[in-house]
Every structure is written in C-alpha cells, then in structure tokens.
Amino acid sequence: MSDPVFLITGGSSGIGAATARAAAEAGYRVALAARSADRLTELATELGGEQRALAITCDVTEWADQEAMVGTVLERFGRLDVAFANAGFGAKRGFLSETPEFWREMVLTNVYGAALTIRATIEALKDAQGHLLLTGSVAGRRALPGSLYSATKWAVTAMGEGARQELNGSGVRVTLIEPGAVDTPFFENQPKTALVADDVARAVMYAVSQPPSVDVNEILIRATTQEG
Questions:
Q1: Which residues, 6+ apart, have CB-to-CB distance to 215 below 8 Å?
Q2: How far apart are CA 160 and CA 140, in angstroms?
C-alpha cells in the first residue's frame, strides 16, 4: 500500500485521537501510540483495523519503546510520513503543589519524551521527506504563575525551532502546534472557554496539507473567548 503514514504519540484520547480521525479521513494510514492499550485498540479498530491503523503500546519516556514503536510502523506500513509528538500532561500551578515524583514524570514525558520521538523518527522522516509536529502550548509562549508545566512547554517551543533548523534542507517540515485551553481529559476541571480537540486536529491537518515548498512553522490557536 502506498498511502502515507501518520504516527501520533498520546494517540488514545483528546487531541491525539481527534487528529487520528482527521488523518484517517484524509487518507492516511495511522499509527497510534500511548500507554493505555485498551483505548488505543478500540480507536484503531474504529479507523479500519490492522490494514489501516496500528495500536502500539509505548511509554515515550523509554527509548527502547520509542525505537520499537518506529520499528513496528516501518515493518507493518513500510514508511513514515508524519510524526506527531503529542504525548504530554499538565500539573497544578504552584511550586508547593504536586509531588516531586509527579513533577519528574511530567518533565520526562513532556520534554524528554518529545525529544526521544524526534530522535526515533528523524531518519524515517528524512527518507520520506515528511513532516514532524510537536504539541506545544500557549503556556509555552508566556509564563504562567507557578507553572512548571509552562516551563516544559517553553522547552518544546525551543525544541521545535531547534529541529526546524537542524532539518532545514532535508525536505522535512517542522510545525509546532500551540493550543490554548482545550476541552479534553487533560483538565480535571474543564475550562469555561475552550477549544475542542477537533479544532486542534484541523490546525494539524492544515499544516500537513500544504505543498512541500511550504513549511508552517507555528500555529498558535485559542478559543475566541480565551483571555490569556
């Protein structure tokens, strides 16, 4: 099969799942990676089963898992055209909130995990002259009071630009997707004014649908009613 292949980490819910549905509708075969196998399998079945969608259990903070993830995609689908480093989670604001262990897991997932996804996919993306996307945040463009999460997303902002510069001339495009508040399981208490996951998925698909000569480097997207 020659249909292009779209890999998404954090693909079991929220922005990842919405993007998987949008990519499948656009004709991509999809590879969905996350720690929660049950939801992944259910979504992969919805999107066409083994011929069109893979469910891959992966902890993005583990290099062996990331290597195996990409190896599975290449073995089963033969190519990798788009990689979306989307896995991540947040924390309560305040430097006396959360536990140090929770902080460590968040930093490893949001920063180290995204870096490992770049490392694991970069050669396959070069072969395909494909597209790398990372989920940043409005919080990665302005500091939030007491927010270590914001600091992790500032790191992702820098990582996206660093990857763009490294890959310039390789044919690989790089896009940083920076949503404001999104009504997804990411939040314990849903924000009153928020995007929905499909809004972000449309932004992703806009970036990947541009001609090869166009690299949309950043998309900063907020709900119309979001103040900050």
A1: 164, 173, 174, 175
A2: 11
Identity at 29, one-letter amino acid code: R
Helices (H), 8-147: 14-25, 37-46, 63-77, 100-107, 113-128
Residue of 204, 73, 191, 43 lying closest to 132 (CA atoms): 204
Provide the token pair at 147.
């927010």
Instruction: Please identify which of the residues 28, 112, 149, 206 carries the catalytic annotation.
Output: 149
Tokens of 98: 């959360």
Q: Which two tokens stand for residue 81?
A: 């055209």
Question: Does the annotation mark 112 as catalytic?
Answer: no
pLDDT digits (tens, 9 = 90+) for 14-71: 999 999 999 999 999 999 999 988 889 999 999 999 899 999 999 999 999 999 999 9
DSSP string of 86-106, one letter each residue? -------SSTTSS-HHHHHHH
The pair of structure tokens assigned to 227 is 């103040």
Sign of CA pseudo-dihedral 145, 149, 155, 160: negative
